[in-house]
Amino acid sequence: MISKCNIETDFDTICKIINDASNAYKGIIPPDRWKEPYMPAEELRTQIAEGVEFWKYLDDNDETLGVMGIQHKNVVTLIRHAYVRTRSRQQGIGGKLLEHLVAMTKTPILIGTWADAFWAIDFYRKYGFHQVSVDEKNKLLQIYWSIPERQVESSVVLASANWNLSTLK
To answer: Which of 27, 34, 35, 81 is buried most, with the most CB atoms less than 10 Å from its CB?
Structure first.
């Protein structure tokens, strides 16, 4: 089952899932971008305060197995912080969360991820997203995300089929 997270009761679980699942990036992303924990609680609180709304996938025992954020920004929607517990991967949980969030919006969707996280890029492509050009990526990351230049260099942006650069003009 998919439901909206209650930040008061689900915060610790969201943080634990993000930090568990993000271990997949260790040794893949640039070492200067890796930290432990990958997302400290303060950073997660900032993301939520900036408008990231989290949704969760619950199993039959009401255990949260995955989380995914959505953030509405002007004329686009961002998918943010998509993570599934390490032990629960490859069960379709991420796809169900993504399909749910995609169905919630009519605006074009943008997703940023690490350029070397081939599995994440392949996942989003499977759901109809396409990687934008380097120039477009650089522009989009500066407009819609607040990340350091080093992270911009080592990231990609994927867009939904209804994305058009003229949306920005």
So the answer is: 81
Q: Mean pLDDT, to the nearest integer, of 17-40?
A: 95
Alpha-carbon separation of residue 17 from 22, 73, 78, 97, 144 (angstroms):
8, 25, 20, 14, 24
pLDDT tens by residue, 77-112: 999 999 999 999 999 999 999 999 999 999 999 999
**Domain residues for 40?**
2-168
C-beta atoms surrounding 113 within 10 Å: 21
CATH code for the domain in which residue 54 is found = 3.40.630.30
The encoded tokens of residue 157 equal 């942006």
- Total number of domains constituting the chain: 1
Contact call for residues 2 and 100 (beta carbons, < 8 A): yes
Which residue type is seen at 34?
W
SS3 call for 67: strand
